[in-house]
Amino acid sequence: MNGCVHRIALSAAVATTLAGASLLAQAPVHKPQATFRSSVDLVSIQASVRDRRGRPVKGLTTADFEVRDNGLPRPILSMRSDQSSSVSLAILVDMSGSMRVGPKMAMARQAFDIIVSQLREGEDEVALFTFDSTLHERHAFTSRFGELRGALDDLRPFGTTSLYDATAATARRLSERPASHKAIVILTDGIDTSSAMTSAEVSGVASSIDVPVYVVATVPAIDEVQILEAATHSTAGDGADLRDLADWTGGQLVFAHNAVDNGALASSMLEELRQRYVLAIEAAGDHEWRRLEVRVRKSSTVVKARSGYFGG
Question: Does pTM surpass 0.85?
Answer without folding.
Answer: no
